[in-house]
Amino acid sequence: MALVVDNADVITMDAVTGSEPVTRSIRIEDGVITEIGATVTVNDGDTVLDGRDRLVTPGLVNAHTHSWEALYKGRYDNLPLELWMLYSYPILGVDPLPEDVVRLRSLLFAIESLESGVTTIVDDVLETPGQSASQLAAVFDAYEQTGIRANVSGHVINRPFIDTLPFVTQWLPDDIVRDVRGQATVTAEEYLDYSRTAFAAHDRSAGGRLRYMLAPSAPQRCTPDLLAGATALAVEYDAECHVHVLETRTQAVTAQVDYGRTFVEYLRDIDALSPNTTFAHGIWLTDSDIDIVAEHGVCVSHNPLSNLKLGSGLAPWRTYHDKGVTLGLGTDGCSSSDTPRLLEVAKSAALVHKITDPDPETWPKVGEVLAAATTGGARSARLGETVGSLEVGKRADFLVYDLTTLAFTPRSRLDHQWVYSENGGSLEYVYVDGRCVVDHGRITTVDRDGILRELREAMPRIAEWQNKLDELNGVLHEPFARMYRESLTHPVPVNRWAG
Ligand SMILES: [Zn+2]
């Protein structure tokens, strides 16, 4: 039995029609698009969805997020990354989160993603103080249940956090320096072994929908053997290797002060770049860094909402395009954006670069933004052949919008309205692998009300834990603020406050 979408307005995002809406019918069998055209085969017993007054698009791909932060939504504002991390990823006094909380957190994040049209998430799961195999399994389990497509890491930091920032140790009490430096870290070989086990247990599970991903945190947060080893292992498994690179000006200073070159040059020099590599953020890169990124086939996840909220700067959108670098779009975590709704990121990306250059020729086009939100994100996730566009042979991950809503009235340019007007209220159905996982805005695969109730009941205990950690880690606030101010006085090779 097949599913047929009959005669809808369709944005395919394929190489021919791109983001231009066209009238199409689509046939789906066993989770795969088998026909798409003016007419398709319809057999007795097929389920037919009437396409009249409906827009069908590929599912959105969130190319960078951290589900850990789902429990931190709305807690912080007006903190730059280096201070924000003190609270969102505390380093003092953290006990591992129990698996049932990890599971609930992942369910919440998947539900809100799917209900806003995000069918694929690149979830860089950062547990503090470090991830256990059972915590990782709880995330995979939640995503298997919800029906979302996901790359799940494996995030690792294996250098003492205070040594990943410039200048700060001089202002910290000796006992804290000693304590933080004394915290257990993994070796490169231990992380690679952990990852081989994770590949065996989880990679391509749930019918291929779920993948394991390598995620060395950042060049300054990992040892060179771990960065190079993770890059090589990702190539071996054709998996994504996800790395935070030059998100902030402070990181650009760190590269100059501690490494004597840019972080892109450093990663190239230690053999930690490949076509499997995706940089999260990629803001404070020089133009010649971007040449290196392009030469090595590295992709970049652009996260403008998070970058605005943390005051990080703006990735050079037009330069990346001019040099042929594949861009995806990411929400980043719910403590820095504070939403998994990728359409908000698409709208921000379409708008914010318009004030960085007076020449309108350089401004993002809606088609480019939609490509980043679909095909670009899919390519960055090593899923370019699997999802991102509506084409024969691809998995049937797609969205069905009601065109009779206020957001789509009057109907002018559907691609423009998808980015600029739609607020989530028009989304009728979400399909992943040809299976309907959201029906009229509500997830169908899990007990939404029960999960939210369980979470509400658990939240007082969780908030108490968060408040305690805020207080404990708050002693580091002033030394970190001094480090932030001090780093502003050091020159960096490029200014990305304005893209
Ligand atoms: Zn991130």
TrEMBL record:
Origin superkingdom: Bacteria
| An example molecular function term from Gene Ontology annotations | hydrolase activity, acting on carbon-nitrogen (but not peptide) bonds
Where's the Amidohydrolase-related domain? 55-437
| Residues forming coiled coils | none
Going by the UniProt record, its keywords in alphabetical order are: Hydrolase
Q: Name one Pfam family in it.
A: Amidohydro_1
Query: What protein does this entry describe?
Result: Hydroxydechloroatrazine ethylaminohydrolase
Q: Which organism is it from?
A: Rhodococcus rhodnii LMG 5362
What does UniProt list as this organism's lineage?
Answer: Bacteria, Bacillati, Actinomycetota, Actinomycetes, Mycobacteriales
